[in-house]
């Protein structure tokens, strides 16, 4: 399974994370917004779609900068690749359309939140980027 996520970075270099809703497998944990890439869909286009669905914002595919990736397995044991993109430009007001809460967090404080397991190494890499 291919999953894409974004590290939205504001003008103060804070990064947006969202708290997984109670009805999802990672309920209560924090994650970078994003989701699954559909069959035949480009990764950047998929992430733009997911950000519109989850946060109500518009992002152009060219505004997404490849940052890092991690691999793991799904709950049913299937291989998973998570691609993280950085994004500093979007249109619209960020709102929690599919999350229990949102937080703008300095990169060096991301790991103070209970993050989804695959997001932990990505958060650690982001902290190094903003040292």
TrEMBL record:
Q: Which residues form the Nudix hydrolase domain?
A: 1-128
One Pfam match, given by its short name, reads NUDIX
Q: What class of enzyme is it?
A: hydrolase
Q: Which reaction does it catalyse?
A: 8-oxo-dGTP + H2O = 8-oxo-dGMP + diphosphate + H(+); 8-oxo-GTP + H2O = 8-oxo-GMP + diphosphate + H(+)
EC annotation from Swiss-Prot or TrEMBL: 3.6.1.55
Kindly list the biological process annotations in GO that this record carries.
DNA repair; DNA replication
Name it.
8-oxo-dGTP diphosphatase
Organism phylogeny: Bacteria, Pseudomonadati, Pseudomonadota, Alphaproteobacteria, Sphingomonadales
């Amino acid at each position: 399974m291919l999953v894409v996520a974004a590290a939205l970075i504001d003008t103060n270099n804070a990064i947006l994370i969202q708290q997984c809703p109670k009805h999802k497998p990672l309920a209560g944990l924090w994650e970078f917004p994003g989701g699954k890439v559909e069959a035949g869909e480009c990764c950047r286009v998929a992430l733009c779609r997911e950000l519109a669905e989850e946060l109500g914002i518009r992002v152009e595919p060219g505004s997404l900068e490849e940052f890092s990736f991690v691999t793991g397995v799904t709950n049913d044991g299937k291989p998973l690749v998570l691609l993280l993109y950085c994004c500093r430009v979007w249109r619209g007001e960020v709102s929690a359309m599919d999350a229990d809460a949102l937080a703008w967090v300095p990169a060096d404080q991301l790991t103070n939140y209970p993050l989804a397991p695959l997001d932990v190494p990505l958060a650690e890499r982001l902290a190094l980027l903003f040292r």
